[in-house]
Amino acid sequence: MMNDNDRQLRPGSNAWIVGLVAAAVLLMGPATVDARDEAAKQPLKIDALKVGDALPRGEWVDLMPALSPKWWAVSGDWRLQDNALFTGPDFYSRLLLPVVIAGDFEFSGAFTRLEGDGSANVLLPVGNTICCVYYSGWHQSVHGLGRIQGMLPTDPDNPTGVQPAKLINGVRYTFHTAVRLDGDQATVQASLDGNLLFTWTGPASHLDVQPVLNLPEPHRAAIGAVGGTYRFDSLALRAMTDGSTVAAVPKEPEIDLAEPGWKDLLAGLDLELATIHGRWLIDEQSLRLAPAAAGQNRNRIMLPETMQSDYDLVVDFTRTSGFDSVVFILPVGGRHAALHISALGGRQGGLEMIDDKNIADWGNPTLRRPNAIPNGQRHRLVLQVRVSDRNAAIRAWLNAKPLLRWSGPEASLAVPADWRLPNRAAIGLGANQINIVFHAAHVREVAGDSK
Question: Three-state SS across the chain?
C-alpha cells in the first residue's frame, strides 16, 4: 500500500528534491505573503495577545512564552529552565500548546534528545480528529504518521513510515509540520532538518491516535515524548486560515464558601450510617481515618448529600502517612467515577473507570503521571461536574493547579466494584493504605449550568 512517498529519503534522490520543494512551498505560505518580508520579521510572541484573540493569519507566532507546565501538562514531568522546555523519560508525556486551532496551520520547532532512544511526538488536530507525527519512534526504527485507519508507522501498510530514523543524542533537530483541509480531505506533511519525511492525503476520518495519546480538549495540538529525555528550544505556529485563537488558561474557579448554596458535608455526619469500609472518627469537626486502618485497602465513607444535578465540590485534606491514593467517589448523572490522587507511591492518578480502563491502564485518557503529593501538608481539591444531554464534563484543580480535564459520554464512567457506594447519587471519600484527615468538605448544586 505504498504511495509516491519514498520511505528512504536519500539526499540527491528525486523524492528528496521534491520534498525540499514541497516543504519550501509550505513554508512560503499564501501567495499574498512576500517571502522576503516574512524572513525579515521576528515571530509575534504569543504573550502579546490575550485569551480569545485570533491568531493573525499567515504570521508565525512564538509559543514559548506561554508554555507553562502548570497549566498545560497533560502527563509527564515537564519543567521550564533557561528559556527551554524539558520533559523526562516518562511514557506518553504530553503538553498542550496554548492555542485552539481551526482549519489549516503549520507548526515548527526545535528539539534535542538528551537521553534514551524514545520518540519525540507532535500531536496535530486535523479538523475534528487528531493525529501524531512520530520522530524516531519504536526505539529509533521509524518516523511516520499515526494512526491511519488504525495503522501505526510500524505497520508495513502505513504509507508514511520512513527509515532509517535514528537520532543522535545531544544533537539539535528542527521539525516542520503542516495540516491542510479541503472538505473531508486532509493533507498532513512533516519534515526533519529540512528533509521531507512524508506527505499524506486522505479522508480526515482515517486519522486518529493511540488511546494513550488522547488529549483532554478538542482542536488542540501538543508536543510529547515516549521513553526519552527531551529539550524543546523553540515552538512556533502559523495559522493559514481564520478561526484559531489563544486558549483560555484553565484557572481554578474563585471559591467563597460563605456564599449561599454551599453545604457542609461533614457537619452532623452519622458515622454508623456513612461508613462503608474502614474505621472513621470525627475529631474536632474533621473526618479522620483511624490509624489502625492505615494498611487496609479501599476505606471509604458515603456522605449524606445526594447530587441530582451539576455541582461543585471543595475538599480540604491532609495525608498524614502512607504513599497510596486519596479517593473521591463522584456521582455523574446516573453514573459514578472515582478520582484517585497520588496512587501507587505518587506515580499516577486519574479517574476510573473510563470505558472500563482503570488508572493502571495507559489507555485511560485521564491518567496523570507523576501525581505525587507531600504528606503532612494541607491540600485543597476543587472539582466541577457538569452533565448535559448524557455527556459529562469533569474538571479538577489541586492546590490551584489543574489536575485533570475530561469530557465524554456519561456512559463511559463506572466505579470498580471495590470502590462502589450503595447510592449512586452520593459523594464518597476514600483512602487506600494511608492515614488521612479530611478537614472540610463542601458542595453546592449548580442548576442549569452545563458548560
Answer: CCCCCCCCCCCCCHHHHHHHHHHHHHHHCCCCCCHHHHHHCCCEEHHHCCCCCECCCCCEEECHHHCCHHHHEEECCEEEECCEEEECCCCCEEEECCEECCCCEEEEEEEEEEEEEEEEEEEEEECCEEEEEEEEHHHHCEEEEECECCECCCCCCCCCCECCCCCCCCCEEEEEEEEEEECCEEEEEEEECCEEEEEEEEEHHHECCCHHHCCCCCCCCEEEEEEEEEEEEEEEEEECCCCCEECCCCCCCCCCCCCCCCEECCCCCCHHHHEEECCEEEECCEEEECHHHCCCCCEEEEEEEECCCCEEEEEEEEEEECCCCEEEEEEECCEEEEEEEEECCCCEEEEECECCECCCCCCCCCCECCCCCCCCCEEEEEEEEEEECCEEEEEEEECCEEEEEEEEEHHHECCCHHHCCCCCCEEEEEECCCEEEEEEEEEEECCCCCC
CATH architecture of structural domain 14-246 = Sandwich (2.60)
More confident residue, 171 or 21: 171
What is the mean pLDDT of the segment spanning 205-226? Answer: 92
CATH 2.60.120.560 domain locations along the chain:
14-246, 263-445
Residue 91 pLDDT level (bands cut at 50, 70, 90): confident
CATH 2.60.120.560 is the classification of domain 263-445: yes
Predicted TM-score of the model (pTM): 0.76
